[in-house]
Design brief:
Layout (H helix, E strand, L loop, with lengths): L5 E3 L7 E4 L3 E7 L6 E6 L7 E4 L5 E2 L2 E7 L7 E6 L2 E3 L6 E2 L15 E2 L22 E4 L1 H5 L12 H6 L1 H7 L3 E4 L3 E2 L3 E3 L6 H8 L11 E3 L8 E5 L9 H14 L3 E7 L6 H15 L3 E5 L5 H4 L9 E4 L20 E4 L1 H11 L6 H9 L6 E5 L8 H4 L35 H19 L4 E5 L31 H18 L22 E4 L14 E7 L13 E7 L5 E4 L9 E6 L17 E4 L3 E7 L5 H5 L1 H4 L12
Parallel strand pairs: 12-13, 12-23, 13-18, 18-19, 19-20, 20-21, 21-22, 22-23
Antiparallel strand pairs: 1-7, 2-3, 3-7, 4-5, 4-8, 6-7, 8-9, 8-11, 10-11, 14-17, 15-16, 24-25, 25-26, 26-30, 27-29, 28-30
Helix pairs in contact: 8-9, 11-12
Amino acid sequence: MQKSFHVTDSSVYPLGVCFMAEGLHISAVCGHETEYGILLFDKKHKDGIRIPFLEENRRGNICAMMLKGYQDRSCSYLFYRGEELFQDPYAMALADERKYGEKKERPSRCKVYDPSYDWENDRIQAIPFEDSLFYMLHVRGFTKHRSSGVRAKGTYAGIVEKLPYLKELGVTALLLMPSYEFDEVLEKEKPLSIEQAIAAYKELPAQPDNSSVRINYWGYQDGLYLMPKYAYAHSKDAVTEFKDMVKAVHQNGMEVMMQFYFRPDMDYTRILWILKFWVLEYHIDGFHLLGADLPLHMLCKDPLLAETKLLGEQNIDPGTGQVSGEAAAFRNFGFMNESFLYDIRKLLKGDGNMINSLIRLNRENAPDKGIVNYIAKQDGFRLYDLVSYDRKHNEANGEDNQDGSSYNYSWNCGIEGKTRKKNILHLRLKQMKNAVTYLLLSQGTPLIYSGDEFANSQDGNNNPYCQDNAVCWIKWDQGGIGEELFTYTKELIRFRREHSIFHMRTPLRGTDYLSCGYPDISFHGKEAWRPDTGAESRSIGILCCGCYAEKETIPDCSFFYIGINMHWESCIFGLPQMPKGKEWVRLFTTNTQEWEKTESDMPDTFSVKVLPRTIVVYGTRDHISAKEEKSAGKRSGQPSKKRMNES
């Protein structure tokens, strides 16, 4: 084959393939047992040319060489080990086009990354944990369904089309499930079919069995960590499309965060390098890191990641060096608070002995870390399924319903699965509103799984890791219950944002340290100031005093009372006496059906009756704006006329 270069030695770093002034630099980790090299494709070598690493090019287990004089920027390549072809683990771009779920005989070719891109002065957002609302989504599943109403379905560009919707909802950060390059095609070992056995016996070529191909829809696995997933791009240029998405999200005042799965044995320095690369090259605002024994306390200390959110599965001491009890300049570590999910689910379905847990979770906050609360995430029931199924229904996964957790702490409200019974549907809607209210009116950072805000369902499948279909795709045409839940969620998010007493930077103390006559937070029962936290109690009243708000947009002192009754019978709450001239007015109620029929949850001076399985939120009248009073009926759960698929 014709060559337009000659091979010389090169430095071992950087690993991977990149153009330099002298030519094409190539560096890879190589073993000693067989021949290693690069298979290079370009205009002159369309079938590829094998260029081996020489022993004199080796430094330890790294081999490096320079193709001096080579500057064909359109080239692509694979590495080889003997006769085996494999992708460069340090590659930053791909050359081959491949449809999602398509099985290939050999890996896609890599190409040299082009860093040029006009970011237009884009910067990371660095939104504090206390002002954040995370929205977790799967790039493909978010807009792949025909009801999404977008042109570029299932892609980064599709997310951009949905940004007006996300901004209307009140999201501050998108948390993308794995969006780095990984092979979603799984090989499933299965016994031969009768047709395949006959073909093998007769030594005939057997027809391919496409049913043996399964999809790893979630993507929690190894991959090419330095590039976005190409099958999630609408265009042929995934790198540019991903950057366009990040820039558009930032222009709308939101952040982009990414989930990464790293093997437990992956080197810390490589993990750090990968995260830095995404921060510098893609302007990523944060990461949710999955894998055993990840060195999060070390990652948090890196100066470049000082304003990058780093989420872990476990609570740790971030070790940022501040004095005990002193808030860090920017809290860059946060953890996923799984106890919130389990305890609130138990309370939601009426389990006893949960009031103390509710009090703890409602107040839980920390000056040196973020605490991320959620009711649902990718593994487990969706919010709607949580109130519609008592047990998992994972038969479609092909594992005899043995996969996925059997303990979901769910309640089907009387009927398993789909129903048209109005009383059951009303109860399910009320329970979903209860869950959303718990989530948004607790301290910490709330996380909503995409579609939960309008009752999207996965038909009772709590582990759809292999379902690339309508089970996992977000259905945007829920109507009815979905529109009503969306309106309620959107208004509650706005309410939370406007009143910082519900999203403080520092923990609430439960004391009157301002000497204003009221503590920042207090708890109540049938009598004011006397909460019932016994094992049989399922009700609690929470009083929040806005005088302690750190960034309150309303200058005067506001009071808010949250009456929570998860009992199957009505409950009387004693209301604390307010300062002279103030009276309670209802802002929100999760009880929608009785809203037009009863005034039983309207307070008098000293008490209020709250109906079964209902949460009611009150505020003091002289600090409720005209806009809030006008929309109080809407917040109670009246459906919006706006369709979910309008953006």
